[in-house]
Amino acid sequence: MANRFDMHIQTLPEAEQKATFKFMSWGFESTLGVKGFQMLINIWLKCFLTPRGSDPVNLTYGTDFTKMIGSNLRAQDARDVVVLSIESCNTQVNNFQKTDTSLTATERLGSAVLTDFVIDNTAPGFTATVEIKNQAGERLVFNLPSNATIP
Amino acid sequence: MAIEISRSDVNEATVFLETLLTQNIPNGRFSQGTALRDLTINALAFIFAQLRKDNKSVQAMQSLLTAQTIATTDPDIDRAVSNAVNAILSNWFITRNAGAFARGLLTIYVSRKQDYLIPGNNRFLFDRSRAYYPDVTDPTITSIINSADLLPVIDADGNVTSYAFQLRVVAARTGVSYNVDPTTWLAGGQFSPFVQKIISTDKFDGGLTLETTSQMIERSETAITVRNLINVRSVSTVLREKFSGIRGLVTIGMGDPEMQRDLKIETASGIDLHVGGHYDIYVDLPRTQTTFQGKLGGLYTRPDNIVNVFRDSSIPNWTLTDVRIGDIIKITDGLPDSPRDYVIREIFLSELRASPNNPFFKATDETATYVDYYIYRPVFGPDIQILPTIGVNTLGETSKRILTSNRLTLPGGAHYQILDVAVIDPDAGDTNISDDDGFVHFTERVPDPPVILGPPDGLQYQVINNDPTTAQSMIQFEELVLPAVYNEKTVRVTYETVVGMGAIHDFTRDRFERVLAGNPLVKAHTPVYLTMEIGYRAKATATALPNETTMNTAVVDLINNFDAEDVIDVSDIIEAIRQADANVGIVFPFTITYRLIVPDGRELEYQTNDIVDLDPSRLQVNPAWTNNQLPNPLALGISDRTVRYRATPSGITFTAQ
Questions:
Q1: Based on the domain organization, do B537 and B644 belong to the same domain?
Q2: Is the ipTM of this complex over 0.95?
Q3: Is-contact B363 B307, C-beta < 8 A?
């Protein structure tokens, strides 16, 4: 069971996201399999970055995080949106995984929380830092929206 | 049928695909939220759900059991289900009945007494959407109404205000909506400028809608059977398939208590034995009215075509000879099977009748040939020759045509209630002539030879069925008897009958259809006519006066469509009245009078305050009658299976109290 693979996806570079409004990519010329903690991160990010209502087969899938792009939301309120989006994403992933007994501890979501949020009034914009953990205790801290990992 | 998929259908498809892929691709992670699942399951689940449901539908369409359950709407009107059922049942050569045409009688009032020609394509409009045409076999035929057949309509002052005649019409289309209630019609008088109005006095009958899928499946339950007329299932299947107008069908065969037609007397012992091989097919068909006109005491062909009449033009009056019932006619020459003996069963003025069970080989009067014969009396010892006493007579004739004084032979077919018997050419000065139309009407049906009693009693007539075992069939031999003073007068009989029995009769007796070892006979059910006077009171909270026409229609429909094997009672009728009009408060206790038309030609009257049945204790004994008992209805083939309850709007009356 442990050697089951999802197809790997990754976020596009920040410049490409801004240019195309696309966030995810297969990323590589040949398809890669992915499992374990990286698969969990993929699942979480795919849900987090999918605009809610954009998946035609499941209109409730995704979050409102990407809807902030181009919106007239005040920077001060953006934090709330990020927090709510993270919570919504956690709920959805947990629901996915709740009844799936085939998942390993490294593939199960432990938690995902906003650890830092810095408003950049010049952009205007913000930098958010998210820590995601699996149930095996592995953790990853990364920036939104660039997804650059932070050691 | 549009295939609609629901969320649960998609979920089922998703689970199926996940299981399938997980089992077959061990390294693939198809859990929720994965990209692989999005690509291989979620994207295809809708399509797969559609295909799965389509597949289920195709599978279900191959079974009658499930065909109806998958319909998205009413299975009877869902075209895909209908087509599937048609296709499945076509494997058993069953096709959907197209429905039947309603028929009925119109009374047309005209202002001038003259002949009227009504083209076969003359449209009679009940309303703006329902058209009817004259009920003729060929639309190019023009119906001719003779001026002599017009009845004068006379007002209170004795003046003729108009003339009336009746015309049978048939609906332009099939459907129950054409079974219209009595009313004044919208139009139809374009065949003559003298038409004043057109009305119908009885509800039209016989209209059937295209057979529904449910009805078709129900009918098909007996379809897997041999396709000939040999058992109950096959008779039902063959006839219902062939004749869409059949609304119900009961087959009575050997061993059934109602089967009396196969009873034969064993000569040596005198015991009645059921010889078998006979079966009676009772068909429930729409009713209609018909008229027959003929000369009383005229020459008529027996409806059963049995050649059992013997004549000799040199003997004008057989009753003056020494010939007795039981003597033997010995035909020595002139028939293919002569010499042969025939027992005399009846003696009339101008003819002898042999036993119908041993008829003559052929009717020689149709070929104007004669037979040689003599009549003898079988006794112990040498036979005694009666006529002629020596040698043979050479002017004997055999015939299927009968001639009986004071009698009118009715044509074959169902003879339900007789609505009118009239002599239309009475002698001038006859005190019984009606002021209304100049005819003599006979209103009292009696079981004994009719006599003229004078006012206030009505004129009597009698109906005799010469063979009750063939009653209500196309070969029944039934005669109408009037008082002797009306012999050789023209008699017009109007009676109720059923539509379409002749074709069914011919089919069952067709050389290629009939069972070679069987003797089938198609019959109409024995009718029982219910009449009643119902008192009612409106509710204190009624918002309108109760509609008696609606109540009348409800009661008539209830009775005419009632399953005779169930028990009809007063409470059924009260319930029908209450349902027909919510403003009815109280329905007072009432008595149901019902008349049974017995296969032997009698009409017996019963009364009840509770349930309708043929219990002899309910019989209303007319003291003037001596033979009106019916102690054993089964001896005449009468049972709940072979009777049908009937009612007409005029027989149900309401009184507000």
A1: yes
A2: no
A3: yes
